[in-house]
From TrEMBL:
GO MF, one annotated term: manganese ion binding
Lineage: Bacteria, Pseudomonadati, Pseudomonadota, Alphaproteobacteria, Rhodospirillales
Keywords annotated in UniProt: Aminopeptidase, Cytoplasm, Hydrolase, Manganese, Metal-binding, Plasmid, Protease
Active site: K277, R351
Organism: Azospirillum thermophilum
Cofactor note: Binds 2 manganese ions per subunit.
Amino-acid positions noted as binding Mn(2+) 2 in the UniProt annotation, renumbered to this chain: K265, D270, D288, E349
Protein name as annotated: Probable cytosol aminopeptidase
Family: Belongs to the peptidase M17 family.
Amino acid sequence: MKFSFAKPTLPKSGSVAVTVAAERSLGAVGQDLDQKTGGALSRAMAAGRFTGKKEETLTLLAPSGVELERVVLVGLGKPEEIDALALQAAGGTALAALDKAAEEASILVDLPDGAALTGAAAAAEVAFGAKLRSYKFDKYRTTDKAKKDQKPSLRKVTLLTDEADVAKKVFGTLDRVADAVFLTRDLVSEPPNVLNPATLADRCRALEEVGVEVEILDPKRLRKLGMGALLGVAQGSANEPRVVVMRYTGNPEAEDKRPVAFIGKGVTFDSGGISIKPAAGMEDMKWDMGGSAVVIGTLQALAARKAKVNAVGIVGLVENMPSGTAQRPGDIVTSASGQTIEVINTDAEGRLVLADCLWYAQDACNPRLMIDLATLTGAIIIALGGEHAGLFSNNDELANNLTAAGLKVGEPLWRLPMGDAYDKEINSDAADMKNVGSGRGAGSIIGAQFLKRFVNDVPWAHIDIAGVAWSKKDTATVPKGGTAFGVRLLDRFVAEFHEG
């Protein structure tokens, strides 16, 4: 879908969305449209009980006095609450309302006095929200594509604003981030017969086009590195594992050249292994590689917008399958750190993958900090639902900065506790540690405690995205399916705390 910017002149035909603040407050151009239609907008708002609340919509078909096919009123909320997130939501809401209306449509960014963002910045944020909502993953659908009544027709959206040229420039950066979000959503949405460790590693090669150095570690190299924890997870599958190292050097002259490191769990399909999962819902386990997809998307975003930062992304890619060669409950594996792990539950495999990747990140990259992302535990869904990702950290400043970045982009984190009492739960009588605790309590915390044993003193954060990686319903800027939760968060985290 193409997005462009133009002066706020009402189109002579077609469809247009008009932003409306709370209490039915129309901006100057919106008031002009209301007059041209003989007050049709005002009457429709009153009759339809439309007040301009955030994400509220009202559609007028073929209003008199103008040649427009439809006018969609989109609520912004109270003027003092109109920030970047509200504007993105308005853009996404408008896009959804206009999607089947025509091939081209316009969005009039008409803001009231008192809005936190105005002009070019506001128009760019509306366009950003509209683009985020425009995402579709339908490459495998054939019959529905032939049904015109089900096929969206919108191809071009024009944002109407007084500062069109500046808005276009501001949107350029946001557009690159949106492309990275789309890449992540694409990867998470792919079926596991298409996306396996080798093919996902190959897709990482595309990042070379934006200046990312990509190194793929094959099984022979992984064995040489002693990654017994990761290899143990992979040994039941016919698809061999990979670890991909992605390096972006955006600030070679930095006084501190140590990179920010992002580490992602990439289980391309998780059957649970010998500790096999129930059949119901197992198809969702194609997105157990969501953490790796976020890391890949983040590196894409940073490189595409030429962020002044040195960053490395490391993703451990495996498939967890039951077979005659699969890892068994009771096996003891030796991790890259030299620590031994008693495998009690083969479905607690993501932490085994991350353990070796976290150790490799420290050994090979000397990072200033490490952030890992993983669909690690079902327990985090019980604790936080689909509204927040779980955050664990050994560093308060890092945790606070990540939380702040998440709030600004609408990807909120909730920090959970860690401590010695939890850590003792993974002590093993047979090895240095076991991969699960003795009971069902505090499952997400136990997983984080396990990872912490491979971190040493490096500032580290673990983000459990199991509850937020996939959405079962549409929201203003996230269509049902893969969310790419974490890409915008990490991009903002870097922009505010680690660039320059």
